[in-house]
Specification:
Shape: elongated
Low-confidence stretches: 1-8
Helix content: 25-40%
Oligomer: single chain
Order of helices and strands: HEEHEHEE
Distance between the termini: 45 Å
Strand order of the largest sheet: 2-1-3-4-5
Strand content: 25-35%
Length: 146
């Protein structure tokens, strides 16, 4: 009989879970964020009106930004800063970038990752490696169709 150990993947149930997991990467960890607007798809009804199709739409990046994670990092701070740029967003698309020797990655290394995140929204690439959250920090599943 062979017994293999199994370590389940950590579950991210809230934005705070993501921050706590990212902090395990050590000092200098960055949270990469894309603000996402959803342009809802419409369909014509039998009487000629248009109605919004639930759960369907085109995702559009509005802003990319990185945040150095600290124990004081909160969703409210990120939402407040995002709303200074635009209030017309629905989701935060996030990824984590570990620090290097306790220091945050420099901007010239961070920027290509942010650009790739934004491009993946517009090109229909897989979004599975990113975590999406509502304004209130609830995780949402987003998938590209193409």
């Amino acid at each position: 009989m062979t017994v293999d150990t199994f370590t389940p993947e950590p579950r991210i149930s809230t934005f705070e879970d993501l921050v706590r997991m990212a902090e395990m990467d050590g000092p200098g960890t960055k949270l990469l964020v894309v603000l996402v607007k959803v342009q809802r798809h419409q369909q014509k009804t039998a009487n000629g009106d248009y109605e919004t199709k639930d759960g369907e739409g085109t995702l559009m990046p509005l802003m990319v930004r990185d945040f150095i994670l600290t124990p004081q990092t909160t969703l409210n701070d990120i939402v407040r800063e995002a709303d200074e740029v635009s209030t017309d967003w629905e989701f935060l698309m996030t990824a984590v970038m570990p620090g290097q020797n306790g220091q945050p990655a420099p901007e010239d290394e961070t920027e290509p990752h942010l650009t790739r995140m934004a491009q993946s929204l517009t090109t229909g690439e897989s979004l599975e490696s990113f975590a999406f959250f509502t304004r209130s920090g609830e995780p949402v599943r987003v998938q590209a169709e193409g």
